[in-house]
Specification:
The protein is an alpha+beta fold and 212 residues long. The protein is built from five helices and nine strands. The radius of gyration is 19 Å and the shape is globular. Keywords: Signal.
Length: 212
């Protein structure tokens, strides 16, 4: 009897972990966010649509976007990180109050480097699996008054607050590693950075297997 109770407890642990650790994202932009988000992405985009993009819309300070861009006519994938010169979502004073202006007529700061095709493909596959399995098909992005994080993979968009546990937290770790790599200027350091990302992807696979 005691052994059976222990077994049931052990089986319940992964389920309890999954229930406590939700991505907290939904499909599309949260309400009252779409115009801002679309303006930022249009400003920071490259010529070729990215296969994967993460866009940050903070409550203060400049927005930013991380992209994995496939080759337009063969060749290497591109890892791209871009920020506007000044915040896109701007408030300016007028005679009878304040109005909102989206500052899209500016030159963004862009850092980009080539990334191995196999690694880029693994990132797209792993992030797609994480987001599609972690966000219910009927779950729309909810309004919240903090920073908005938006993942876009192909035509699918998943937005909400930054995930802080489980597989979602691993996506953020990988995004941070990719941002650092986009700013790398020493070619000798790239193998180390790519190997670290492979390890994070292996960790993501294990997390998804446990959660599943």
């Amino acid at each position: 009897m005691r052994a059976r109770a222990l077994l049931l407890l052990l089986l319940a642990v992964p389920a309890a972990h999954a229930a406590e650790c939700e991505l907290g994202l939904g499909h599309g932009w949260p309400p009252a966010t779409g115009n801002h988000g679309d303006a930022v992405e249009a400003l920071l985009a490259s010529g070729t649509p990215p296969a994967l993009q993460v866009t940050w819309l903070p409550t203060r300070g400049v927005e930013s976007a991380l992209m994995l861009v496939p080759p337009a006519n063969g060749g290497a994938w591109t890892l791209r990180h871009a920020t506007p010169a000044q915040r896109v979502d701007h408030r300016e004073s007028i005679s009878n109050g304040v109005r909102r202006v989206l500052l899209t007529d500016q030159q963004p700061e862009v850092r980009e480097v080539p990334i191995p095709e196999t690694l880029a493909g693994r990132l797209v596959e792993g992030w797609t699996r994480t987001l599609r399995s972690g966000v219910a098909a009927d779950q729309e992005a909810r309004f919240h008054d903090g920073e908005v994080l938006s993942f876009r993979i192909g035509d699918d968009r998943f937005s909400g607050p930054e995930p802080r546990c489980g597989a979602g937290e691993l996506l953020i770790e990988q995004a941070e590693a990719l941002i650092d790599a986009a700013g790398e200027r020493d070619p000798d350091d790239f193998p180390k950075r790519w190997n670290a990302l492979w390890r994070l992807l292996d960790e993501l696979d294990r997390e998804l297997a446990t959660a599943g």
